[in-house]
Amino acid sequence: MNILITGVHGFVGSNLVKALSPHHTIYGLDIISPEKEGVVETFTWDNLDDGSIPEVDAIIHLAGKAHDTKNKSAADIYFKVNTGLTQRIFDWYMVNPYAKKFIFFSTVKSAADYVEGDILTEECVPTPVGPYGESKIAAENYIISKYSPQAMSIPSHSFTDSVLFPDKKVYIMRPCMIHGPGNKGNLNLLYNVVKKGIPWPLGAFENRRSFTSIQNLCVVIEGLLSKNVESGIYHMADDEALSTNELISVICEALGRKSHIWRINRDFMNALAKVGGWLHLPLNPLRMQKLTENYVVSNSKIKSALSLPKMPVTAKDGLIATIRSFKETK
Fold it and tell me: Which residue, among 69, 61, 64, 109, has the nearest Cα to 89 in the 3D structure?
């Protein structure tokens, strides 16, 4: 299969190239076009209009503006990149007579900034907060409106194979936090805190969060490419959700040291966070909420679609592999 991957030089793109290139021919599309091992040729976005990109069977659209947790990025940048580039590549896909599968990497943040109830499923009514999630849901809606216009009058999660384009498949993937060896995201920040021996003071909060191991994600993408899976929106997560306390224990296990978790009274810590908000300190009510909230994501739909009884890598094993990669690169 000939596959075009946008954002091919990023973390997820690089891992997909390693996983897919032994069995498929990979082409890249990015803002720059240096050579990359496993990629036959990389094109720039200008090449979409000049006819130089060869025939491809599938497109994996990864390119986008990542979530800026420091809130320094202007809102229009998110919409220009996350929505605008998606519109361009999807329009190209829809008029391409050879490409039969399109996989768009959205995010669970397009569905919900926080989870109401026990678990986030595809049936939720999207309520994104902020330009990152809003730009992603705008991209999702554009895809659905072009591929299956009748689906815009029903809940978006109900869209499936288009009656107008029966030879084309479209998959909107909503992964929660993706991690793996070489990743430098939020896990790396927590790793550095634990590595310094700083005790975790929020042990009294037993929240649970879902993660996505890059190994599991690559297996799912290979499944979507190789199997006859119905079009639709699919959430992506590991099978197990972990508490922050469990995550810290996993980090300590990977480091070969004992964890230090303080279970300080919850009311006291919430009061401390309020004071931090008044004084503009790192621990404030918003950060406290993010550190202690539950965010559990269902992966039942994608496992059912691929006939996977379980994800091949457990959440703990995937996290240990990621943490050990931090240790090896220090």
Answer: 61
Sign (positive/negative) of CA torsion 259, 264, 270, 271?
negative
Span between the terminal Cα atoms of the chain, in Å: 38
List the CATH number of the domain containing 185: 3.90.25.10
Q: Which of 298, 244, 247 is nearest to 118 (CA)?
A: 298
Identity (one letter) of the amino acid at 290?
Answer: K
> Of 212, 281, 308, which is closest to residue 15 (Cα–Cα)?
212
> What tens digit of pLDDT does each residue of 59-74 get?
999 998 876 655 556 7
* DSSP-assigned letter for residue 123: T
141 and 205 within one domain: no
For residue 262, the enclosing domain spans 180-210+238-330
Query: Within this chain, do residues 79 and 22 fall inside the same structural domain, yes or no?
Result: yes
Residues 280 and 166 in one domain: no
H helical segments located in the chain:
11-20, 75-78, 84-95, 131-147, 186-195, 214-226, 244-255, 266-278, 285-292, 300-306, 315-329
Residue identified by tokens 């190789």 is 226
Report the distance separating Cα 94 and Cα 97, nearest Å.
8
Question: Would you say the pTM of this structure is higher than 0.70?
Answer: yes
Chain segment 182-233, per-residue pLDDT in tens? 776 777 778 888 888 888 888 898 889 999 999 999 999 999 999 999 999 9
Tell me the one-letter amino acid at 311. M
- Residue pLDDT, tens place only, 33-43: 778 899 999 99
Q: Can you give the pLDDT at residue 263?
A: 92
In 3D space, the residue among 131, 130, 225, 123 whose CA is nearest the CA of residue 174 turns out to be 123
Task: For residue 188, give the amino acid letter.
Answer: N
